[in-house]
């Protein structure tokens, strides 16, 4: 009986071996004919036998299975099956005697990663942010060391208004301690005398040796941590989960109490919640730390203007413009602040009668309005220099030139307004 049992077992093992070979042959044949439906069908049958395969057969099968599920037109779910097969293959060959398929498997994974990134960028160009987010998440799943892909997945999910997904990814990034800052490598093109950004240090340094580039420099980009925490908090605010929003900001501030970026993020959260007192407090604290930050000065100007504190609003806007003459919003808000005095003048003008005293007062008020216009014009002109397509600034200037009787300038602005309207 014992002998018969051994023979039966041997026959059984032999039948499994033949079955494995038959399924793998069927899989290979289907792949050669690009019959991926048949290839996937063959893998379904072979999967039931995989536990009995020797390492050599299993390695070959995993590689063929990856090919069956990863081809032009594969779905993300199919690619995921291929990725799992390739990773299992690479891991298996690490501890084995043979690494026959590992190199090809790594090439396939690299191609899949590249395909995901290409399709993600294409989706962004088409403004299909939801698809882009999924592709970036797939890329991250494929290469966990590249956490920047998870950041892109979160950011594009925000653009897609899929806040639940973006919140999940942002929290994952926060838990990973993601910073997102990186070193960028620059050098000056000797022919154009313009600084150029290089993909990596090796490429920059190689270009320097050719003599076509000089003056190398390295610059570290800003950390994305403040942005991530701010977005987490703002999503909580949009979900009416204000306590979670404040808690998220508090955790971040406790870790980095000196981080001005986080102060501004918390300030924006409070502003979103309507807490202008706390917003102002944080902006002022940040301004003390960075007195030469034009954006901070501008925000203080906005707060002062909303509180009808014209004197301080002017002071802050002027400071922002002094720090950054190309700060278009500060230039525009200064013009708006100046022109707010026009309403009271026009109201009084419209209420005057026809007496000699009223006529005299009308002329005084007209001169006063002209003086306001004269003060506001340079700011509006600067806005147009910074952004030639700002139609609101162009319209305002057109109306002011008309009121001032400056016909040539009025016609110039009228033509610009017509051109901008046609462009829209």
What would the keywords be for this entry?
424 residues; mainly alpha; 4 domains; three-stranded antiparallel sheet; 20 helices; 3 strands; disordered N terminus
Describe this structure in words.
This protein has 20 helices and three strands. It has 424 residues and is mainly alpha-helical. The protein folds into four domains: 115 residues; 50 residues, no CATH class; 38 residues; 134 residues, Tetratricopeptide repeat domain (Serine Threonine Protein Phosphatase 5, Tetratricopeptide repeat, Alpha Horseshoe). It has a three-stranded antiparallel beta sheet with strand order 2-1-3, with helices on one face. Helix 12 runs antiparallel to helix 13. The longest helix is centred in the N-terminal third of the chain and has 31 residues. The termini are far apart.
Could you give the topology of this structure?
Elements: H1 2-32, H2 36-47, H3 55-69, H4 76-94, H5 102-125, H6 129-142, H7 148-159, H8 163-176, E1 183-189, E2 195-198, H9 201-209, E3 213-220, H10 225-238, H11 242-255, H12 260-272, H13 276-289, H14 294-306, H15 310-323, H16 328-339, H17 342-350, H18 356-386, H19 391-404, H20 407-423
Antiparallel strand pairs: 1-2, 1-3
Helix pairs in contact: 1-2, 1-3, 2-3, 3-4, 4-5, 5-6, 6-7, 7-8, 8-10, 10-11, 10-12, 11-12, 12-13, 13-14, 14-15, 15-16, 16-18, 17-18, 18-19, 19-20
